[in-house]
Every structure is written in structure tokens, then in C-alpha cells.
Amino acid sequence: MKPVKVGICGLGTVGSGTVNVFRRNAKEIIGRAGCPIEIVQVGSRRRKDNCDLTGIDFSEDIFAVAKNPEIDIIVELIGGYDIAKELVLTAIENGKHVVTANKALIAVHGNEIFEAARAKGVVVAFEASVAGGIPVVKAIREGLAGNSIKWLAGIINGTGNFILTEMRDKGRAFDDVLKEAQELGYAEADPTFDVEGIDAAHKLTILASAAFGAPLQFDRAFTEGISNISTIDVDHAQELGYIIKHLGIARIHDNGMELRVHPTLVPADKLLAKVDGVMNAVLIDGDAVGQTMYYGAGAGSEATASAVLADIVDVARIINSGEAAAVPFLGFTQESIADINVLPIEDIQSAYYLRILAEDHPGVLAKVASILSEDGINIESVMQRETEEHQGKIPMMMLTHTVVEKQINEAICKIEALDDVIGDVVKIRVELFKD
Ligand SMILES: NC(=O)C1=CN([C@@H]2O[C@H](COP(=O)(O)OP(=O)(O)OC[C@H]3O[C@@H](n4cnc5c(N)ncnc54)[C@H](O)[C@@H]3O)[C@@H](O)[C@H]2O)C=CC1
Ligand SMILES: N[C@@H](CC=O)C(=O)O
Ligand code: NA
């Protein structure tokens, strides 16, 4: 059988991992694909010492790789929006199939890229773009194809989860842990994408579209990062029986879908609360199967290479069996993809954790409680703690029952207007994983 020839663009963390794992596991990979596979060319700014390129042509010009007539599959591992888009469209224009780990590219330009690929009859595969090595795109598109998916929630940024875990367990400083995540190759080229939730929102956008059969709508996602999480809230949440995790949540309703990324209190006994370090996990609720969870390394050189190579195997099989055998890009045929309105964050329903700093006067708690009760918000539990940091003042932590976000925001405005209340009220959403 004719060998399938691969060109890799970008020899960084993931690119070098892909070459190294391919060299190590070529026999199994080829055995699974059912045809010979060869990495014939690598394009990148520079070679890497940790990667043996013997027998592979090296070029500093990634566009030369994308146009190389010998190549069947272009693997885009340069990252970013603009040049990556031009590169992928050039590859498609030249009749190449594309494998990419670039969630920014798919979340923002995916609709256009898929259209170009469909017109040219080539495949765009992107398993590595969401949750690194976890085969979660495959799980949604294929394994759960018999379900109506109701919601999904996931820890989908390895860097952010690594930072939160190290801060909580070892008391390490935010910047120090971020620096380590960068050294380990977990972080994005611009690490604000990790800590401000943009990377997680890219991934959630992709998961939601595959789960619900809608076009990609990254610009409508609600995004809040982890940079404002304080150790006070991490500690108080734990006392209340919760762990703070940075979650991406997508949920379908009759009038639209939720698409939101933010720090979230997760009950400590839930599996998601126990997902630590660079690990990712995605919990998916399907009407037939119920809840299933997918867990594994969300970032890192070889873990991500694992997903890139699985896509190469899939595409090699398609090359040999015909395009008709390919799973549609978002799991649904183009004709059945339908627009779904993304609900504004004010319309979502959630339980909330509130931290209110007040003068230590009698009756403050009663005033706060009466505002909440007048606004129809039930309190689940209250905790007061004197701290050395806040002499003469008293932080009050509250958990509310589920309400519409607009309602809690109005109550917070009234609470902040009380004379006894100091500064802004801290609000963190609580997820109970119910329907
Ligand atoms: N590092 C990780 O754990 C994961 C990364 N990803 C994604 O994989 C992609 C690659 O990430 P990394 O390997 O971490 O990045 P990286 O920064 O380590 O590697 C990118 C490589 O591409 C080269 N490059 C970039 N632009 C170029 C250009 N115009 N011409 C020639 N060479 C160019 C760079 O020199 C570098 O060697 C990104 O889209 C990232 O979001 C996805 C999952 C996990
Ligand atoms: N920067 C990302 C890499 C994988 O997608 C992360 O930390 O999760
Ligand atoms: Na994946």
C-alpha cells in the first residue's frame, strides 16, 4: 500500500513530542493505520536538540511544507490565530488533510476552515486541541453519538489547574507556579490565555459545538480567569466542603445554551474536585448513558502528541478508505448543524458563594440576610470568621440556593450599598451538577 506522507509545521513542545513518539511507536501506529506512514518533512524556525530528525527533511519555511506536493497530511503545531489560519488554508488549498492541536484556530476560525476543507474534500482533525491527550472529541463525536447531550463541564486548562493545585496544597505563589508551568511546556505562548480563561473558552467552544451540533461561537462565550482567586476563598470554600476549580460549562436549554468559563466551587466529594495538577477531566451528561467522565493529561509534549498521532492514524485510514468514511468535523453532518443562541450570563441559574467583609457590628448579618430574603434568595449556609488581617471587621461567607444570576447581582449591589459593608462582595458560582 502507498505510504501516507506527513509534514509537521512547528517543532516546539508538541511538534518534537510527535516526532519522538512516532519514532518510538511507529510499528504499532502503522499496524493500526493499516498502511505505512512516514514523516517526510518538518518546518519550523529552528531544529530542536531533543528530537532526532534523521531521514526527515527540515525547512525553515512552513509554507513550503504546506505546499510540498509529496505530502498528504499537514500537522499544524505552530499555534496562534493568523499565520496558522493562512498555513492551514494553504494546506487545504493544496489538497492536504490537516491535523492541528490549535484550539484558538479552531474556536475562532473553525467554521471557515471546515467550509474550505469540505469544498476541497479533505479532513481537518483536532483531537489534540481539547484536553490534550484525552480522546474527548472522539468520545463526543463517536462514542456518545447515540445520546442527546444535555450538559458538559470540564477542567480543560492544565496550566490553570496546576497553578490552583500548587497554591492550595503547597501555598506557592501564583507567579512562581506559572513560571514552572511555562518551563514544563504546559502554558500557551501568551500565558494570559491560560490564566484569564481564554484557552479554556476556546476548548469549551469546540466541545459545545460537537456536543450540541452548533457552529463555533467563541465570541459569545463568557470568560473569567483564575487571576483574582484569593487563598482566603480557597480556604473558606474548603471549610464549607468545596474545592475551587476553573470550569468550562456548556448546557443546552429550550431557548439557547450556556457557554461559560469561570472559577467554580465544586463539592469536595465529586470526582471533578479531585482532578489536580496538569490533569484535565470532562464530565458529560448524555440522556441515555448518564454521566461519563474523561480524565488524563491536559497538556505536555508526549501526552498531546498522543492525540496528534491518533488523528494521523484516523486520517491515514480515511485516505485509504475514501472520504465517505470520515466522521463529520463536529460529529453532525453540515445539514444538521443549527444555530443555537448563547444565553447571556445574567440569565444562567446557579448557586453562589459570597464573601462579604463588614464592620463587626451587631445586626449586620441580619441586614444582609433580609436583603437576600426580600430578593427571594435562600441561604444554604453561613460562616463567619475573624481574621488577623481584618481586625475589627468580620468576613461572612454564604452559600445560596440556585437563583438567576441577574437576581444575585441585584442583591449584591444592595449589600455593597450598606454602610457596614466594606468594599466589593466576592461572588463565585457553585456547580452542583444537577440537570
Ligand atoms: N504545549 C501543550 O501542552 C499543548 C499545546 N497545544 C497547542 O499546540 C500548539 C503548539 O504548542 P507548543 O508546541 O506548546 O508551542 P511551542 O511554542 O513550543 O512550539 C511552536 C513551534 O512553532 C514554531 N513556529 C511558530 N511560528 C512559526 C513560523 N511562522 N514559522 C516557523 N516556525 C514557527 C516555533 O518556533 C516553535 O518551535 C499550540 O496551538 C498550542 O495551543 C495543545 C495542547 C497541549
Ligand atoms: N496551555 C494549555 C495547553 C493545552 O491545551 C493548557 O495548559 O491546558
Ligand atoms: Na483531546
From TrEMBL:
Positions of NADPH binding: 103
Organism, scientific name: Oleiphilus messinensis
Protein name: Homoserine dehydrogenase
GO molecular function, a single term: NADP binding
The entry's keywords: Amino-acid biosynthesis, Methionine biosynthesis, NADP, Oxidoreductase, Threonine biosynthesis
Keyword set includes Ribonucleoprotein: no
Catalytic activity: L-homoserine + NAD(+) = L-aspartate 4-semialdehyde + NADH + H(+)
Annotated EC: 1.1.1.3
Pathway this chain belongs to: Amino-acid biosynthesis; L-threonine biosynthesis; L-threonine from L-aspartate: step 3/5; Amino-acid biosynthesis; L-methionine biosynthesis via de novo pathway; L-homoserine from L-aspartate: step 3/3
Pfam families assigned to the protein according to its UniProt record, in alphabetical order: ACT, Homoserine_dh, NAD_binding_3
Top enzyme class: oxidoreductase
Record has Nucleotidyltransferase as a keyword: no
UniProt: L-homoserine binding residues: 188
Record GO biological process: methionine biosynthetic process; threonine biosynthetic process
